[in-house]
């Protein structure tokens, strides 16, 4: 970056606007993908698999996303991700066979991986290090705001035109996201943009050189991601187990989301001023405590309070994955490192609900939820030993 004083107003709309719009798009389509599949003749099990392809596409797309971003730069990658997303959702909207819908959903997942990585690397260049955590927390928070808005916007249009309305809302949001990405101010190009080593050797070299970081902090991030994904399964399952109606569960989810959205900026400021540990540690412990406590609830009030505590733990961790990844990334091979970092986080996101479901089938739902909570204790130990007690990013990784 240049020595010119940094000003938020130069990047706030083009940098964070696409995040809100991508969140709106995801929030609009995620609740209806399975319903769309059933509507065109898929079985419930096939519909569930098609809905999971968003996450699987993102997981598979992390390494290609690193190569694309490294070769073409962040701004072009963001625009390309928006274009691919629009094409994918258009295919979903017109699909009359489950295979076409599955292809569209998979492409959406791949585009999402490119978008997430490109916006992270862009902010790393655009924002000074002493404001990095606030930038990434705000990025995560704006995504949450979009996810909160999306289902309501989709519901309004679906009332008039049916399930396709959700895809129309998402397409409109992504066209706007592409336009805002086009308006991103150009940054001075890094030396390694456009010069990419052979993908296999580069990725394997980065993985080998930074294996200690991936096996320590990376494993902590994997556990955090697993807890975050599991809570979205644990909450409705436990609500059903204690006899709450779907309407009550939806209201609780709304309360959790509102707390989640309120605390992201203060969390980023704490990370910048006092160090990453003082957000990573409470995030891990609060998520762990709330997951341990969830099976002890038996009524609406206690269930709601524990879920709101879970929202607090998740909200203060907004941006923690991106911030720690940015802190640990090398100056050479940065995008490749971040692609591997996102891959680790996405593995946790995918594995968490699977493990919860497996333990529920083998033992019980309460045991599965409690076991997921134990991840937070392990993550807290890792962060306590690996992150500095004071100051911003550590300098020795």
From TrEMBL:
The keyword Ligase does not apply. Residues 11-391 form the Major facilitator superfamily (MFS) profile domain. One of its GO terms (cellular component) is plasma membrane. It is a multi-pass membrane protein. The chain crosses the membrane at residues 12-34, 46-65, 77-94, 100-118, 139-160, 166-184, 212-229, 241-265, 277-294, 300-325, 337-356, 362-385. Keywords: Cell membrane, Membrane, Transmembrane, Transmembrane helix, Transport. InterPro entries: MFS, MFS_dom, MFS_trans_sf, MFS_Transporters. GO terms for molecular function: transmembrane transporter activity. It comes from the Bacteria. It is found in: Cell membrane. Gene3D superfamilies: MFS general substrate transporter like domains (1.20.1250.20). This is MFS transporter. The lineage of its organism: Bacteria, Pseudomonadati, Pseudomonadota, Betaproteobacteria, Burkholderiales.
């Amino acid at each position: 970056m240049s020595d010119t004083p940094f000003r938020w107003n130069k990047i706030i709309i083009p940098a964070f606007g696409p995040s809100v719009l991508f969140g709106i798009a995801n929030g609009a389509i995620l609740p209806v993908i399975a319903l769309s599949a059933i509507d065109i003749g898929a079985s419930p099990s096939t519909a569930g698999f098609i809905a999971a392809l968003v996450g699987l596409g993102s997981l598979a797309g992390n390494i290609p996303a690193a190569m694309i971003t490294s070769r073409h730069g962040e701004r072009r990658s963001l625009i390309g991700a928006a274009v691919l997303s629009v094409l994918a959702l258009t295919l979903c909207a017109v699909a009359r066979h489950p295979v076409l819908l599955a292809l569209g959903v998979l492409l959406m997942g791949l585009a999402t991986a490119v978008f997430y990585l490109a916006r992270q690397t862009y902010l790393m260049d655009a924002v000074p290090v002493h404001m990095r955590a606030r930038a990434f927390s705000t990025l995560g928070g704006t995504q949450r705001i979009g996810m909160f808005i999306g289902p309501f916007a989709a519901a309004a249009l679906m009332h008039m035109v049916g399930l396709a309305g959700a895809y129309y809302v998402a397409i409109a949001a992504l066209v706007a996201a592409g336009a805002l990405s086009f308006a991103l101010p150009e940054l001075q190009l890094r030396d390694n943009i456009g010069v990419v080593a052979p993908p296999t050797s580069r990725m394997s070299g980065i993985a080998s050189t930074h294996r200690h970081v991936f096996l320590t902090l990376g494993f902590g991030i994997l556990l955090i991601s697993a807890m975050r994904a599991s809570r979205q399964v644990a909450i409705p399952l436990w609500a059903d187990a204690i006899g709450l109606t779907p309407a009550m569960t939806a209201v609780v989810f709304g309360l959790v989301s509102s707390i989640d959205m309120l605390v992201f900026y203060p969390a980023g400021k704490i990370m910048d001023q006092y160090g990453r540990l003082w957000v990573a540690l409470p995030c891990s412990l609060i998520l762990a405590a709330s997951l341990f406590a969830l099976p002890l609830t038996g009524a609406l009030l206690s269930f709601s309070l524990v879920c709101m505590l879970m929202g607090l733990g998740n909200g203060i961790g907004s941006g923690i994955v991106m911030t720690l990844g940015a802190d640990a990334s090398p100056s050479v091979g940065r995008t490749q490192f971040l692609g591997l970092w996102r891959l680790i986080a996405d593995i946790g996101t995918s594995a968490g609900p699977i493990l919860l479901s497996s333990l529920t089938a083998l033992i019980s739902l309460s045991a599965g939820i409690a076991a997921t909570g134990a991840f937070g204790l392990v993550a807290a130990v890792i962060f306590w030993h690996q992150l500095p007690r004071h100051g911003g990013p550590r300098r020795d990784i």
